[in-house]
Structures are given as structure tokens and as C-alpha cells.
């Protein structure tokens, strides 16, 4: 099953609790905003934690029980929105953190959504297509009491894709007795998916990278780029950035990375990856490197497009890039963030950098609800305008509060959610 991002990065992930990280980031923004203590108490916790243990019939006839989660952090600004991931390392705290980040991500781009996230503890690489379908349909049935176009709309994430969303949409539709395309986003076009959705996150990464370079006074032709992760997000980012004139010198996948200081031919790397399932062995590479070594290359721009906790106290001082664009969720621990700030490394935070995916998911949801679909050119233009405006607003707040882009993004997002929470009040 094709994954949307990297599945694992041996040797680079530190055992840091992502939910602690998410709460610490929120607390910093709350302090800058001088947020009311009551609002702060509400927003730093998730609203709902739903755990399911469900049986799945395997190909050999045996029954295996899997554990899954669906977490809703906040519903104040609209239905919950967030992906579903399949991975052996899925945990409750990871999903809680991701749901909180989704709240801020939707708010920073001013989408009418709250944040949610889902996950199933499994190794999809060890499951057949039939077993994956059985698992997906049973998990969808278990969480059906939460999800729906007016309440909580899932999307693809790590190790899930269009086919996964089609199974979920069909399961919910069959249980209701009629088709409900707006139940999920990231679907195939044939059942209500949106043009431009597969490339949306990578395109958003390209847009904010361009914006950051403009503000730093850099020309694309002057910048070298390394990208950790060559799934959907990393590969699209690499291709689009090279198309804008950036020199992509290194990329990696779960098996390792390739490096050529003179630049890689990304369309050729894409063809090699499609044929072999990995970037390793590409003839145009000068050398093969580990994922951890890629992070420490002498490049201008570094784009982590994999899992959380890639930058820690252990390696932050060795990062040579001048700009980090977080295509992944939570790749930088607070300790590493502090080190980057002290060293003058600019970080475009995840809640802004990778918001292109949820933005076009919003477009898909809107199109499904009105049964009227837009052309890809229009979708890409709308996405670009939203991402550029969000970057400008984040940059202005960061300068106003004399803080980092991350805290600028958090201040923008948290204030929007806090204002909505305050004006709605507490029920009953």
C-alpha cells in the first residue's frame, strides 16, 4: 500500500513525547498572548479521546485484535478535521498531539475546522491488501459514531492513501444507506475527490519556502535543498522546488538517502523510485547517506518530510541549514527549537508549512457538499493565495511580538480559536 509519507527512520527518532511538545508550544503562545487562565485550561487539553479494540479476520482465517484511536482536540470553529495513520509506533499521546496541531493548522489558514487525528497500531507492510481493507472497514465502523461530514472528516496520513479513504467512505455510506462523499477527503476523483489534492501538501511547502526566501532576500538559484522523506509530500516538494529553480542535492526514504552536491535530477529520481521502490541505487547520486547524515548536510534549506522528533538536543547544534521548512508534523523538539533560534536558523513551523493538504481537503469537502467541482488551476491558485496570506500574517505577528515564526503562527492560531471559544461561551 502506497504511503503518503515516510514510514520510519531508524536511528533518527528520539523517544520524546509529542503531546508534551504540543502542550509546551501552546503554553508559550498562551503566555505571549496573556491568555485567560480558563481559556488556557480548555485549549491545552483534547476534548475527546476515543480508543477502540477491534477484531480483524486475517487471510489465514485467524482473528487478530487491533487498537485504534480517534481524538478530537477542538470543535469550536467547525467540524473536526484530521488524518488517519497506520504505523507500529502509533500511540495515544502521538494522536493527541497531532489532533492539537491540526486545530492550530486549520486556524492559521483560517479554515472553518477544529482539529482531530486518528491512528491504528499496525505494520501495514506486513498486511495483505485484503487484510488492510478488513482492518480499515472495521476501524471505520468502530469510529462511525464520531465521523461524518458535519462532525469529523478524516483524511490520509502516514501509510494511508486514496484507497483507504474510499474504503472508509464506502463503509460509512453503506451503514447509512446512501453515499456520503463528504465523509472523508483525499478520495479518488471517481468518488468525489478533488483535483490537486495529492500534490497539495507538497505544493504548500513550495509556496511557503518561496515566501521565506523572498523575506530573507534569497534567489532560488542560490539555494541548495535537502529533503528527508520521499513519500508523497517529500517527492512533490522536491519536484516543485526544482521547477522553481532550487537545487535539490539530497533526498531520502526509509532505506536511506542519496546526495549529489551538484544537484539531483528529480524527475529521474522519481522514475527510479517508482521502478525500484527506493531512492538508493540512483545512478545520478554522488554518494548514499543515512537519514541522520542528510539532516546535517551543508545546505541552505532543509525540509523534514517524515515523522516527529527528527531535530533534538543531540543533533540541533550540527544542523548546517539556514532555513528549516517543516513538511512533517512535529519534527523539532522544543529544545532543538531553542538551539535553532539561538543559532539564527529560521524555522517555518509545521502548522503553517504543511497546511496545504488540509486546505485542499477543505476545498474537496466544499465541492462534495455542493456537488460542484473546480478545475485544478483554480484549486492551485486558491491554495497559493491562502498559503501566501497565512505566511504574511504569521511573519507580521512574529515581528510584532519579536519572536519566532513558530510562535507567530501559534499566536495567530491560538487567538483565533480562543476568540471563538470566548464568544461562544460554555454550554450549558
How would you sum up this structure, described in words?
This protein is globular. 44% of the residues lie in helices and 17% in strands. With 428 residues, the protein is of the alpha/beta class. The N and C termini lie far apart (46 Å). It is built from 14 helices and 12 strands. Among the domains are: 48-185, Leucine Dehydrogenase, chain A, domain 1 (Rossmann fold, 3-Layer(aba) Sandwich); 200-353, Rossmann fold (3-Layer(aba) Sandwich), CATH 3.40.50.720. Helix 10 links the parallel strand 11 (323-325) and strand 12 (346-348).
Q: What is the fold named in CATH at topology level of the domain at 200-353?
A: Rossmann fold
N→C terminal distance: 46 Å
**SS class:** alpha/beta
- Give the biggest sheet: 7 strands, mixed
- The outline comes out as globular
- Count of helical stretches: 14
Brief overview, please?
By secondary structure, the protein is an alpha/beta fold.
Keywords for this entry:
Rossmann fold, 7-stranded mixed β-sheet, alpha/beta, disordered N terminus, 5-stranded mixed β-sheet, 428 residues
Give the SSE map.
Layout: H1 18-33, H2 37-43, E1 48-57, E2 63-74, E3 80-87, H3 92-108, E4 114-121, H4 129-142, E5 152-156, H5 162-176, H6 200-216, E6 224-228, H7 232-243, E7 247-253, E8 256-259, H8 266-276, E9 287-289, H9 291-295, E10 301-304, E11 323-325, H10 334-343, E12 346-348, H11 350-353, H12 356-370, H13 376-400, H14 405-424
Parallel strand pairs: 3-4, 3-5, 6-7, 6-10, 10-11, 11-12
Antiparallel strand pairs: 1-2, 2-4, 7-8, 8-9
Helix pairs in contact: 1-3, 1-14, 3-14, 4-5, 6-7, 6-12, 6-13, 12-13, 13-14
Amino acid at each position: 500500500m502506497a504511503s503518503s509519507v515516510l514510514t520510519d527512520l531508524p536511528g533518527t527518532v528520539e523517544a520524546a513525547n509529542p503531546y508534551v511538545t504540543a502542550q509546551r508550544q501552546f503554553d508559550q503562545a498562551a503566555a505571549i498572548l496573556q491568555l485567560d487562565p480558563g481559556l488556557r485550561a480548555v485549549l491545552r487539553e483534547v476534548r475527546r479521546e476515543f480508543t477502540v479494540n477491534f477484531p480483524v479476520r486475517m487471510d489465514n482465517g485467524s482473528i487478530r485484535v487491533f487498537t485504534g484511536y480517534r481524538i478530537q482536540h477542538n470543535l469550536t470553529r467547525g467540524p473536526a478535521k484530521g488524518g488517519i495513520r497506520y504505523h507500529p509506533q502509533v500511540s495515544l499521546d502521538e494522536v493527541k498531539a497531532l489532533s492539537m496541531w491540526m486545530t492550530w493548522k486549520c486556524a492559521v489558514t483560517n479554515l472553518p475546522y477544529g482539529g482531530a487525528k486518528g491512528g491504528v497500531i499496525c505494520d501495514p507492510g506486513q498486511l495483505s491488501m485484503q487484510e488492510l481493507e478488513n482492518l480499515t472497514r472495521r476501524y471505520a465502523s468502530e469510529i462511525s459514531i464520531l465521523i461524518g461530514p458535519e462532525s469529523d472528516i478524516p483524511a490520509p496520513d502516514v501509510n494511508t492513501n486514496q484507497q483507504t479513504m474510499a474504503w472508509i467512505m464506502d463503509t460509512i455510506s453503506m451503514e447509512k444507506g446512501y453515499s456520503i462523499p463528504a465523509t472523508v477527503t483525499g478520495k479518488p476523483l471517481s468518488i468525489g475527490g478533488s483535483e490537486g489534492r495529492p500534490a497539495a501538501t507538497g505544493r504548500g511547502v513550495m509556496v511557503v519556502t518561496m515566501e521565506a526566501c523572498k523575506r530573507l532576500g534569497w534567489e532560488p538559484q542560490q539555494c541548495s535543498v535537502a529533503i528527508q522523506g520521499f513519500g508523497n509530500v517529500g517527492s512533490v516538494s522536491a519536484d516543485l522546488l526544482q521547477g522553481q529553480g532550487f537545487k535539490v542535492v539530497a533526498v531520502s526514504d526509509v532505506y536511506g538517502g542519496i546526495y549529489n552536491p551538484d544537484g539531483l535530477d528529480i524527475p529521474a529520481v522519481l522514475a527510479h523510485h517508482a521502478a525500484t521502490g527506493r531512492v538508493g541505487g540512483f545512478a545520478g547520486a554522488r554518494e548514499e547517506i543515512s537519514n541522520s547524515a542528510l539532516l546535517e548536510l551543508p545546505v541552505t534549506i532543509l525540509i523534514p518530510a517524515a515523522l516527529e522528533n527528527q531535530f533534538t538536543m543531540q543533533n540541533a547544534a550540527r544542523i548546517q541549514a539556514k532555513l528549516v521548512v517543516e513538511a512533517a508534523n512535529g519534527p523539532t523538539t522544543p529544545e532543538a527549537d531553542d538551539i535553532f533560534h539561538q543559532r539564527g536558523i529560521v524555522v517555518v513551523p509545521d502548522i503553517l508549512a504543511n497546511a496545504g493538504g488540509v486546505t485542499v481537503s477543505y476545498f474537496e469537502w466544499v465541492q462534495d457538499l455542493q456537488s460542484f467541482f473546480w478545475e485544478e488551476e483554480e484549486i492551485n491558485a486558491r491554495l497559493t493565495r491562502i498559503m501566501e496570506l497565512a505566511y504574511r500574517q504569521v511573519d507580521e505577528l512574529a515581528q510584532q511580538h519579536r519572536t519566532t515564526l513558530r510562535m507567530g503562527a501559534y499566536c495567530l492560531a491560538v487567538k483565533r480559536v480562543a476568540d471563538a471559544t470566548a464568544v461562544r461561551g460554555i454550554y450549558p
